[in-house]
Design goal:
The complex is a heterodimer of chains A (about 280) and B (about 260). With about 280 residues, chain A is an alpha/beta fold. Chain A is about 25% helix and about 20% strand. The chains are: A alpha/beta (about 280), B alpha/beta (about 260).
Chain lengths: ~280, ~260
């Protein structure tokens, strides 16, 4: 079959309409998980089937599309999803954060601040923040509707009692507009402050779990904590080895079998843009 | 004095079978009520209906709430009832596993109710949890251990601590000493008696063990086939049972 045999952006129009409805409902109730009839996609669950469906529903032919996987534009997941939409939608693609109008992301928020008019689509493995504390879906829904969120703090309590500090470092639970507790997908807690008051629209899609949730622009998002153990966004305490940035989230890369390691920005576009602007880290060739 | 809890004509049927039928009683502050009867006599059904775990077919359960005074808990909205059941009420299950979070440390188990009512200071939660572990005779060094590492008696005491930490006014207990060996039972009863007296708790205790009610309960109801056949002061009922079934029950206790 040729690529032209598919509808624009792979999904049929009825499906996109159904997903858009879920997105609109999600935007109207920030942080609320809207069920939707997730479709079988030509990729395995866990590879971003939820994010792909949300992207397909919001893409227009004039959009410029960017995909990142853990911050990187050049890893398998990012490359294959980018190619998928190049073939089925024929949209422009880019690696530049500023030029993109729709950015699909797995586990990171780009370092460059996003602006009005942009849409950030997250791939979500488990949308329910209470899942590992309360396995019954019927019960967690009730807890959300009655705002019974004491259990979320039990998880943080356990962290402190075991490790002396809140050791949850990714998928750190947040409270949206003082109402719903939300799982921000497995982004590092370093990125949590960027969720709040963001100018761009943030959409979260979980394909296997069949849930969509959203944050409209300029939404209040607060990370949960204790009064005597306040929330702290954390990162490796090093500058980037390639571009020398001190304010970006870093990956630790092992470079040989003698214990040598280097820290580099996980956001590849941010790092490359800084390098071409003349910034240099200590490990740059 | 207004009763803390008034139960009017509670009935629950399971199809053609009667769970419990037309049970009414009043419970005053500081009073402990025992409900005894053989297996299948409707004790647990009654308790679950009163505690809001089962919807009864008929009847009213009026609780004297702190803010609004006497209120029918069955007609109450669900959020209100759930709020009540984690502040003014407590429920001690027969099996500690039903009432505890087995994957969470002892301190987290005790702290859960505090966090559920809005406590957000780790140090305070922890010191309250440690204090309560002490009160139920669990060593403070076990505060970070999971209940899976505890013995049956310790699990039951932990469950009691977890329930009493928010200072409830009414405690429901479903066979609190069931499944424990006699020496552990005796210690638990001693502990419960102390806590009930010190905190001025009201309690409804369901049991088939007459020794438990003799020790703890001020008043007693004897149930058979879903109906109350005899009610009165504990010592009166146990020493001079009037109904044939109560006589049978009292005479069935093994004398050592």
């Amino acid at each position: 079959m040729t690529d032209q045999a598919y509808n624009f952006a792979y999904l049929d129009e009825q499906t996109k309409r159904m997903i858009r409805r879920a997105i609109l409902k999600g935007l109207a109730i920030p942080g609320y998980q809207v069920p939707f009839a997730s479709r079988e996609m030509p990729m395995p669950y866990g590879w971003g089937t939820g994010g792909v469906q949300v992207s397909a529903a919001v893409l227009t032919p004039k959009d410029t599309f960017k995909v990142i996987d853990q911050g990187a534009d050049d890893t398998t997941n990012a490359v294959s999803i980018r190619t998928f939409f190049e073939r089925t939608a024929g949209v422009e693609t880019t690696t530049s954060t500023e030029e993109a109008t729709v950015i699909q992301t797995r586990h990171r928020i780009p370092e460059d601040p996003l602006t009005e008019g942009q849409i950030l689509v997250y791939q979500v493995p488990i949308p329910e923040p209470l899942r590992f504390l309360e396995p019954r879906e019927s019960e967690t829904r009730k807890m959300h509707s009655l705002e019974e969120y004491g259990l979320m703090h039990v998880k943080l309590y356990e962290d402190i009692s075991r490790h002396g500090h809140i050791a949850t470092s990714y998928a750190y639970p947040v409270r949206v507009e003082g109402r719903y507790v939300m799982d921000p997908s497995p982004i590092p807690k370093f990125d949590n402050p960027k969720l709040a008051e963001m100018e761009a629209i943030q959409l979260f899609g979980a394909g296997r779990e069949q849930r969509i949730y959203a944050l409209p622009p300029y939404t209040q998002v607060v990370s949960l904590d204790f009064e005597d153990h306040p929330f702290e966004p954390s990162k490796a305490d090093h500058p980037c080895g390639m571009c020398g940035a001190k304010d970006s989230y870093l990956d630790e890369v092992i470079v040989d079998d003698e214990g040598q390691r280097m820290f580099v920005c996980s956001d590849t576009h941010y790092c490359e843009a800084r390098q071409s602007a003349g910034h240099k880290g200590k490990d740059a060739a | 004095m207004t009763p803390l809890l008034s139960v009017y004509g509670i009935s629950k049927r399971y199809g053609p079978h009667i769970g419990c039928a037309y049970v009414s009683f009043e419970l005053y502050p500081g009073e402990v009520m025992g409900i005894v009867g053989e297996s299948g006599s409707g004790k647990s059904t009654l308790l679950n209906c009163i505690a809001g775990h089962l919807p009864p077919d008929e009847g009213k359960v009026v609780f004297d709430t702190r803010i609004e005074g006497p209120k029918d808990t069955i007609a109450m909205s669900e959020p209100e009832r759930r709020m009540l059941s984690r502040t003014d009420w407590a429920f001690v299950h027969q099996h500690a596993r039903d009432g505890l979070r087995m994957g969470v440390s002892a301190g987290g188990n005790v702290g859960e109710r505090l966090m559920a009512v809005g406590e957000r200071h780790y140090g305070d939660i922890r010191s309250k949890a440690t204090d309560w572990l002490g009160r139920v005779e669990i060593d403070a060094s076990r505060v970070d251990d999971r209940p899976t590492t505890f013995s049956g008696g310790m699990q039951q005491r932990l469950q009691i601590a977890r329930n009493l930490v928010t200072g409830p006014r009414l405690v429901f207990m479903d066979e609190p000493t069931g499944g424990l060996d006699v020496s552990v039972q005796a210690r638990l009863l001693d502990l419960l008696r102390g806590l009930v007296r010190d905190m001025g708790l009201s309690a409804i205790i369901v049991t088939h063990d007459l020794a438990v009610v003799r020790l703890l309960a001020d008043r007693l109801m004897v149930m058979k086939s879903g109906r109350v056949v005899e009610a009165g002061l504990t010592d009166q009922v146990l020493d001079d049972p009037q109904h044939a079934y109560s006589q049978l029950l009292v005479s069935s206790v093994l004398q050592v």
